[in-house]
Amino acid sequence: MLDPSLDFQIEQLGSCHFTSPMRGVQFADENERLLYHSSPEDLRPYIAAGLEPPSMERAGPRQQIFFDRHQLSCGIVSCGGLCPGINNVIRAVVMSLYHHYGVRRILGFRYGFKGLVKRHDVPPVILSPDAVNHISELGGTILASSRGPQDAVEMVDYLQELGVGILFTIGGDGTLKGAATIAAEVKRRGLPLSVIAIPKTIDNDICFVNKTFGFETAVAAAQNAINAAHSEATGAFNGIGLVKLMGRDSGFIAAQATLVNGQVNFCLTPEEPFNPHELMQKLEERLTRRGHAVIVVAEGAGQELMTVTGKRDSSGNLQLGDIGEWLRDTIKSHFTEIKTEITLKYIDPSYIIRSQPANAHDSAFCLLLGHNAVHAGMSGRTNMVLGSWNNQFTHIPIALATRQRKRIDPKGWFWSSVLASTGQQGDIAEL
Ligand code: ATP
Ligand code: MG
């Protein structure tokens, strides 16, 4: 289907008059693009209409750059919740600015967007290779973070006062929207200030981005919890192990962790509403047949089953009902009602997972994201997100990336594979 709204055009501050000081690297061709669609069926309508199919700009170092590296100051800010790999990204951005481009003034804004507002009195720290050399061994973010909105006018006032030329924002959906308001204010003032976002969402729910950093580490770290749930379940009469994982709107972590583990019998995600009566019935059948069960539930699943308070956090995110506790209580009541003894163990490892240092896979991914973010900023691109698509790094306009959330397609091959691994839809009919 043709989608005329798919505009991957990236904003540019101006012409590139400086030659990159990088040596011995493969520079990206300015015209190099990656197709958004990869199947012939999706491409056909564009070809039939004589239109160019939608494509994304490829990331990478450019031969000609916009900023005079000798005069340039840069800033980095991290916002929202923790996610494995934030420190790796900070380190990679600092190292690339310093070693690839010779930028010497790099400011680390503290406590998220709050640190970008002067009257909050949290002055930025100076980041150097020495200051960041070992930070990727640590979980969390050395710059600390915050939630809650800040005024774009005040933030740009302070950036202007400090002479920042490129601002790197590391954060999720809210941070991207905040970064877009900064970019809009910068544009209104006609400043040569680039805003480059590096998407941080452990839930992997950003559109036009195949995978975000921290996801692989989260899935790997979730294995401890699922294995513990399985041991607890098999170690008791009618044992049930229940694990709640991250995933407010998209159940990618729960689903991928289920595929990786292979011990999960029921995987519940926000994308696929479930009927609690059916679930109890299947759980009864499973206990009768096998004597134990493992359930993995994403935090945003089954919200329609609970009384939602409508309360929001300081960033405006709706507070979710606790599906883990709800399921625990519902399962216990159900089996008490039918006078069947069970032993249920509930595990919520979310904060342990979020604060992990990045694993090997994510560390390399974060390094490349950080380097490519610097290349994008140095080339004068702005109001954009560093994405990854079909194993390549790309540039995506922030407006497109925040258009909607990426979710599991309940009719797609991925979810079908998860169901095939849990067997939660029932075994094959007896022959
Ligand atoms: P997480 O995935 O952990 O929620 P996030 O980046 O979405 O990460 P938030 O706390 O939701 O984290 O938002 C980060 C920052 O962006 C906060 O300071 C928040 O107030 C700000 N923000 C959120 N939405 C907007 C918006 N629409 N416009 C401007 N700023 C926003
Ligand atoms: Mg958010």
From TrEMBL:
Its EC number is 2.7.1.11. Residues 74-376 form the Phosphofructokinase domain. Substrate binds at residues 201-203, 246-248, 299, 351-354. Gene3D superfamilies: 3.40.50.450. Its cofactor is Mg(2+). The active site is at 203 (proton acceptor). ATP binds at residues 81, 147-148, 172-175. Transmembrane segments: none annotated. Keywords: ATP-binding, Cytoplasm, Glycolysis, Kinase, Magnesium, Metal-binding, Nucleotide-binding, Transferase. InterPro entries: ATP_PFK (IPR022953), PFKA (IPR050929), Phosphofructokinase_dom (IPR000023), PKF_sf (IPR035966), PyroP-dep_PFK_TP0108 (IPR012004). One of its GO terms (molecular function) is 6-phosphofructokinase activity. The record marks 174 as: Important for substrate specificity. Mg(2+) binds at residue 173. Homodimer. Belongs to the phosphofructokinase type A (PFKA) family. PPi-dependent PFK group II subfamily. Atypical ATP-dependent clade 'X' sub-subfamily. Catalyzes the phosphorylation of D-fructose 6-phosphate to fructose 1,6-bisphosphate by ATP, the first committing step of glycolysis. This is ATP-dependent 6-phosphofructokinase. It comes from Desulfuromusa kysingii.
